[in-house]
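User: Thanks for the earlier help. One more: HicB-like antitoxin of toxin-antitoxin system domain-containing protein. Can you show the sequence and predicted structure together?

Assistant: Of course, both are below.
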Amino acid sequence: MRGLYEILLYWNKNLKVFIAEIPALGAKVDGLTYEEALKKAESHIYHQMHGRFC
């Protein structure tokens, strides 16, 4: 199964973390850096596609 997923990345001033949203999956993850949040989002997508949960 292959798919393309939009990832929205932004800084949350209140929490002081980057948020990565995956709208198609209704998921949000966070990270202390942009790269960490993106990596977590990619991992979440991978696990959803392969039937495992993060």
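User: Great, one quick takeaway?

Assistant: The CA atoms of residues 37 and 48 lie 17 Å apart.
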